[in-house]
Structures are given as C-alpha cells and as structure tokens.
Amino acid sequence: EMTLEAARARAKQLSAERQLQLHAQRVARIEKKQKLDRLIRSAFLPKEMVSEFEETIMVDKRFRRSHWETAKKLIAAVNLHPSKWYARPAVLYTQFAKFGFSPDYSNRLLRLMNAWGWFFCDSSNRAWKDVPRPRGFELQLIKRAYLKKLPGGRVAKPLTPEMLLAAKRDLDEQHYNWLFLSVWFGLRPREINNLLVTDENLWWVDKSDDRFSILNVYQQKLQEEGVAETRCWKAIPEVLADQATAIEIIFSKNFRKPSPKIFKKYFPPGIKPYSGRKNFNIMLRQLGYDQECRQKWMGHLSMQTAMEHYDDPRIVTFRPPVDVRKVG
Q1: Band of residue 218 on the pLDDT scale cut at 50, 70, 90
Q2: How far apart are CA 226 and CA 146, in angstroms?
C-alpha cells in the first residue's frame, strides 16, 4: 500500500510529466506557426523584392518605415496573393478591425499595401487593381473596433486653455509649451514636433501683413494620403491674443512632447496629444468663427471631417439672426 508521502511524490511526478507534455506542445505550435510565417513571407514578401521596394517606392512615396513594418505583418496575416486583394477587400478590412487600427491609420496602411501590391504584381506580370478605402459597413466596423480597443474608448477629449493653465505649475516648461502650441494653433502632434526643425518645406511664419502673422504648416498626413502637395499647406492667422505667445515659443524651440505618463499623471482620463487640437475647433466655434474658417485653420479637406471628429454637438452656441431692417 502506498504511503501518503509516496502518493504525494507520485502526484508531483505526474504533474511534472504533464507540464513537460504541455510545454512540448506549445513549442511545437510556435515552431509550426513560425515555419508557416516564413513560408508566407518567402511567397508574398521575398527579401530581394522587399529590399528593392524599400530603396525605390518607399523613398519616392515617402512612406514611413514604422508603417511598412506594420504593413508587412498584415500582408503575412492576410496570407493571400496581392492580385486577389481587390476581389476580397474584406480580408484586409477585417485585419484593420482585428488590430484596432483607427480609420485614418488603416487608410495609410492600405495606401502602402496597395503600393506593395502593384510593385509585387508588376514584377511577376500579374494583373493589379488598387483596393478601395473601406466605406459603409466596413468603415463602421473598423471605427467600432478602434473605439473599443481600450477601456473608456480611444477618442481624445478636449484640452481647454483653462485645464492647461491649471496644470502649468506641475508641468515641465517644455511640456507646457508643447501643449500650449497644441491648444492655440490646433496642430497635430507631428506638426508640432516639426516646428523644432528650421525648414521652410515644413513650416514658416509670414509677417508681411501688418495686422497679424500667419503660421504656414505643411501637413505630412495629407501628403501620405496622396493629396497634391499644393493642397497640403494650411495657413493659420494670428487672430487670438495667446497665438502671439505661441509664435514666440515656436522660435524659441523650447518645447517637447509630453510622454503618456505625463498625461496620465497630471490630466483627467482622455486627455492625449490630440486633445489640444480637439478643443481648437470647439473654441473657434464658441468664439464665433464660421465653419469655413475652422476647416481651413484645422487643415481639413472637407467640413465633414471637422464636424465628425472635432466637434461636440452637445455644446450649444447661439448668435441671434441679423435684423435686415436695421442693417445700414
């Protein structure tokens, strides 16, 4: 008859054997997946073609390396010959939703993947047709997946001048100045970072008008989406009092983007690098600037974008209609 100690030893031995079996199974699954991934990449992402694509198309189109790394993962995950993407676009759209990419980021990746698809098919004499951007149901699917990716959603909440001023004493001066530019010019995070570089191909200040200076900013986001370079510029006049201070900050170069930890430590949930830009449109509306002004100063190609992503319908603004009988 087995003693208690022997039973415990035997149970421990059986448990160890079971763990070894499970470990071996996990290793086998990983190795199998890695082998399949290598096969897929050798079929749809051959090293020689990838190198040529990176040295030519990526340079000519100014694609970002980080976007290309993500696109390669998606191409491998799709596991479908690029010539068949057009006939089965939902396969790509599903991957965008699976990874929780924003609609904007999904479109950037799709543009890059279309460039690769054309290059790949052209090199192998296969027919090619660009995959269109997701619309309708597919677009809504991507949006919902993006918003649900993180607890509480991923949409940035507005950062008002009052909120920024309240946090000033806790913030590093350079972090405060970066957010100040975001609040008073409504710039995208990358556009603010570009201000640190003295390059008239990225930004410049026009002081030829005696009434106000005009900040001209090149929008790389639009250029990456295939918009003509002449339409990638936006001009923001210095019409608000604090914008004069913002221009001084630009020329001082004394600003730096806060880390996610800074936002989490000193601001309420939902305040992110885009929060200043989010409030800029709302602030201009409250100050009485019309929709066309807001669209141009935000750098949007359409009013729909401004209303859909940067406006808050819950905020009420009211200006009484003009009494034409009293005009003149």
Answers
A1: very high
A2: 23
d(CA 25, CA 312): 52
Average pLDDT of every residue of the chain: 86
Q: How many residues does the chain have?
A: 328
Three-state SS for the chain is: CCCHHHHHHHHHHHHHHHHHHHHHHHHHHHHHHHHHHHHHHHHHCCHHHHHHHHHCHHHHHCCCHHHHHHHHHHHHHHCCCHHHCCCCHHHHHHHHHHCCCCHHHHHHHHHHHHHHHHHHHHHCCCCCCCCCCCCHHHHHHHHHHHHHCCCCCCCCCCCCHHHHHHCHHHCCHHHHHHHHHHHHHCCCHHHHHHCCCCCCCCEEEECCCCCCCEEEEECHHHHHCCCCHHHCEEEEECCCHHHHHHHHHHHHCCCCCCCHHHHHHHCCCCCCCCHHHHHHHHHHHHCCCCHHHHHHHHCCCCHHHHHHHCCCCCCCCCCCCCCHHHCC
Q: Sheet harboring 214-218: ordered strands across? A: 203-206, 214-218, 233-237
The average pLDDT across 268-275 equals 91
User: What angle in degrees, to the nearest 10, is found between the helix axes of 89-98 and 103-123?
Assistant: 140
Task: Tell me the two tokens of residue 118.
Answer: 């054309």
Mean pLDDT of 220-225: 80
Q: How confident is the model at residue 327 (pLDDT cuts 50, 70, 90)?
A: very low
The 10s digit of each residue's pLDDT in 30-65 is 777 766 676 666 678 898 999 999 999 998 988 999
Q: Residue 321 and residue 302: Cα distance in Å, rounded?
A: 26
